[in-house]
Amino acid sequence: MIKRLMVSLFILSLFGVRVNYAQDFENVEMTVHPVSGNVLYIAGRGGNIGLLHGEDGILLIDDQYAPLTEKIIKAVNSISSQPIRYIINTHMHPDHTGGNENFGRLGAMIVGHENVRSQMAKAGYSQTPPFVTFSQDVTFHVNQETVHVFKVPNAHTNNDSFIKFVSANTIHTGDVYRSESYPYIDINNGGSFLGTIAAYELLIEASDQNTKIIPGHGGVTNIQRVVKATRMLQVIRDRVQNLINDDLTLEGVLSRNVTQEYNAEWDSGRRIGGAVGLVTAAYRDLIE
Ligand SMILES: [Zn+2]
Predict the structure, then answer these.
(1) Residue 119 Cα, ligand 1 centroid: separation in angstroms?
(2) Is 187 inside a domain boundary?
(3) Which is the most buried residue in 38, 70, 79, 244, by most CB within 10 A?
(4) CA of 267 relative to ligand 1 center, distance in Å
(5) 185 is in which domain, residue-wise?
(6) Domain containing 169 — which CATH number?
């Protein structure tokens, strides 16, 4: 009897979690933000969805979570009635790839770097990986636009790409760049602090003063802010290196507050986008 009651409670709690989970997504609102020409982005929950529209059909960058597919389609339809033909995954994380299965069934080609596929398998993800992959870069010629997708050094993960819309002079950075916090470096999935600096340098090289930058999370930004963030990471790198040279342990380095003057502007205070994670990733790279 007690056992049965416990099982029932367990099932109820599972059910409860499911209900909350569903309601959680029910309350998500999609907002559409024009960026440049035919390029926009949609914010909902999870990574910003880049969007290119035109007579050749819709190209999306990332697709958030599976329960949000209908809302995403609604938002897309408010811009264009063309079919969703291509989805590019910036990287593996579930808030960027969760809709892959749904959109794939609806006929979209899901494209990503080959490491997105292999790392999703390695990490045991249940989301559907991209089924068209590339090793260096790939270019789409659609809607009078050139869409260049290229792998960047291991940064947020080991499978990050930038997507450049050449005519619209716009770059979607995935989660390599976040406009409202420190970068989050997922070291369990091959992310790298030094690689993040290298990827920022690549982003600066690929941009000019007018380039619009769509980050993985946060509002559209510009290259001046990325330059500022790069300088900050270089300062943090040098400070951590000096402390390592003085034989400090990770704990010792963390106690020195090497990010102090940047925290008010960049520290999320959380696991994702926080100072502790950033300094830990820097230490791990530099101690090697
Ligand atoms: Zn991510």
Answers:
(1) 13
(2) yes
(3) 38
(4) 17
(5) 24-222
(6) 3.60.15.10
120's tokens = 């999703």
181 within domain boundaries: yes
Q: What is the pLDDT of residues 57-111, one digit of tens each?
A: 999 999 999 999 999 999 999 999 999 999 999 999 999 999 999 999 999 999 9
Q: Which two tokens stand for residue 267?
A: 């520290």
If one counts the domains in the chain, the total is 1
Query: Ligand 1 mean position to 116 CA, how many Å?
Result: 11
Q: Taking 80 as the threshold, does the pLDDT of residue 28 lie above it?
A: yes
85 neighbors 60 (Cβ within 8 angstroms)? no
Beta bridge partners of 113: 134
Strand-pairing partners, residue 263, are none
β-pairing, 161-165 with 170-172? antiparallel
Q: Where do we find the tokens 């035919």?
A: 38
Residue length, the chain? Answer: 288
Does 152 reside within a domain?
yes
Q: Ligand 1 mean position to 156 CA, how many Å?
A: 7
- Separation of 125 CA from ligand 1 center, angstroms? 13
User: Is 156 inside a domain boundary?
Assistant: yes
